From TrEMBL:
Cofactor list: Zn(2+)
An example Gene Ontology biological process: formaldehyde catabolic process
Enoyl reductase (ER) domain segment(s): 14-361
GO cellular component entries: cytosol
Record-linked Pfam families: ADH_N, ADH_zinc_N
Keywords: Metal-binding, NAD, Oxidoreductase, Zinc
Protein name in the entry: Oxidoreductase
């Protein structure tokens, strides 16, 4: 029997979101019904609302969530009602060419729930990143549920479902930051600060944070930045070279998604250094680089999708590091809000007033 619940819906492009009653089916084969406890307000949700990802309106927004499994469908193993889980959008298939080559973090056929959640009139909803967690309950593929220690509150655990994992993974998984490295991070929002925290965890000794907002640079220091650069008043490339003995950083992470910023990141790395793009560009953007410099500088230019993470491997480890006091997930939470406050949270995000607003459900 379908569950009638409240959820945040984007009905059309650029229109304010609304809290509506929707229907969530009981889980079918391979699916799980999850009672959502908390969900972060991520920039990706704003992209959906603005039509920057697709036009499959109406969207059921929210994806950065943690909660408790309420029911599972036939054929589900390793997951049971009562399990505390973080939701992820990389439910690996185990059968595609990436999985068969032992690289499941590149899975090309990740699973989502087969059944549709709908408006009361039967209109199908498109769940953000296959999750749709600005809702009291959501239906996902069982593989989208990663069990973790319930000692970590949902307000912080859910952040690993997207932005924080993307940043930490960009540093550790994609960038391969290791002890003694120098790292520069362009863009000190949630993802950039997570990259800084990840670089610190990995043992980087010099971490340069770059942003246009002095407030964000102060936040970056709290996550482990050893140097800060306001690129509105200082040349960031020269500042990064000055902080690294004149050479440039071993790993430079671009968490903005702008061609001009990427070019700065490219020029701010040391010879044989690595540039990691984790900021999301718009479809119309183009990038031009001196081809000889691409060759002559050596190293690697990489893109990081979801921090090249494997949720079953990475989420439990990061929760343990949080419990040990080594990963300050709580510092990402600027405010907690109710289900009726998501539109206001988007406005605060636009203004740069928050790292993360987190919607909490009773």
């Amino acid at each position: 029997m379908p569950h009638e619940i409240s959820a945040v819906v984007a009905r059309e492009k650029n229109a304010p979101v609304s809290v509506e009653r929707i229907l969530v089916p009981d889980p079918g084969p391979g699916e799980a019904l999850v009672k959502v406890q908390a969900c972060g307000v991520c920039h990706t949700d704003l992209h959906y609302k603005e039509g920057g990802i697709g036009d499959d309106f109406p969207y059921l927004l929210g994806h950065e969530a943690a909660g408790v499994v309420e029911a599972v469908g036939d054929g589900v193993t390793g997951l049971a009602p009562g399990d505390y889980v973080i939701l992820n959008w990389r439910a690996v298939c185990g059968q595609c060419r990436a999985c068969l080559r032992g690289r499941p973090w590149y899975c090309f056929a990740t699973h989502n729930a087969t059944q549709k959640m709908t408006l009361l009139d039967g209109t199908p909803l498109s769940p953000a990143l296959g999750i749709g967690a600005f809702a009291e309950k959501t239906l996902v593929a069982a593989g989208q549920c990663t069990k973790v220690d319930p000692a970590a509150p949902a307000t912080v655990a859910g952040l690993l479902g997207c932005g924080v994992m993307a940043g930490i993974g960009a540093a550790i998984n994609t960038g391969g930051v290791t002890r003694g490295d120098s790292v520069a991070v362009f863009g000190c929002g949630g993802v950039g600060d997570a990259a800084i925290a990840g670089a610190r965890l990995a043992g980087a000794t010099t971490i340069v944070a770059v942003d246009l907002d002095d407030r964000k640079l102060e936040w970056a220091r709290e996550f482990g930045a050893t140097h800060t650069v306001n690129s509105g008043s200082v040349d960031p490339v020269e500042a990064i070279r000055a902080a690294t003995g004149g050479f440039g950083a071993d790993v430079v992470i671009e968490a903005v998604g702008l061609p001009k910023v990427y070019e700065q990141a490219f020029n701010a790395r040391d010879l044989a250094g690595t540039v990691v793009l984790v900021g999301v560009p718009r479809p119309d953007m183009q990038l031009t680089l001196p081809f000889l410099d691409v060759f002559g500088r050596g190293g690697a230019l990489k893109s990081s999708w979801y921090g090249d993470c494997l949720p079953s491997r990475d989420f439990p480890v990061l929760i343990e590091l949080f419990k040990q006091g080594r990963l300050p997930l709580d510092k990402f939470v600027t405010e907690t809000i109710g289900i009726n406050d998501v539109e206001a949270a988007f406005d605060k995000m636009h203004k740069g007033d928050v790292l993360r607003s987190v919607m909490v459900l009773d």
